[in-house]
Amino acid sequence: MTHARHTFTDAQWQRIEPFMPPCKGRHGGAHRAFFDALLWMARTGAPWRDLPERLGTWSVVYQRYAYWCDKGHFERLFQGVQQPDMEEVMADSTCCRA
User: CA-to-CA distance for 16 and 81, rounded, in angstroms?
Assistant: First the structure.
């Protein structure tokens, strides 16, 4: 697998970076490396222990992920990135029984 499939592009990162919480005690690139690790996990479906060393220590990445979940950082990030356009709304009812 290529590294490009498991990393954010610069354009994608520029869109989400302003919504990141302060990075206490870590250098500025720590958020991006953390998100690359989460993206790798999501795309591969692998266990945490199989996280490649180049993306960080699996236990540190997991602890940070659990902390972010507990503190609600992901919810605030997703709300900040969303740009709802309510001009047109469609519902697909092919999977819903009436």
Answer: 6
Length of the chain: 98
CB 77 within 8 A of CB 50: no
Q: Please state, for a pLDDT cut of 90, what percent of the chain lies above it.
A: 27
Place of tokens 């720590």: 30
Measured distance CA(68)–CA(46) in Å, rounded: 20
3-class DSSP state for residue 16? helix
User: What does the angle CA 16 – CA 80 – CA 91 come to, to the nearest 5 degrees?
Assistant: 110
Buried b / exposed e over 18-55, threshold 16 CB at 10 Å, is eebeeeeeeeeeebbbbbbbbbbbeeeeeeeeebeeeb
Kindly report the pTM of this predicted structure: 0.70
**69 or 19, which is more confident:** 69
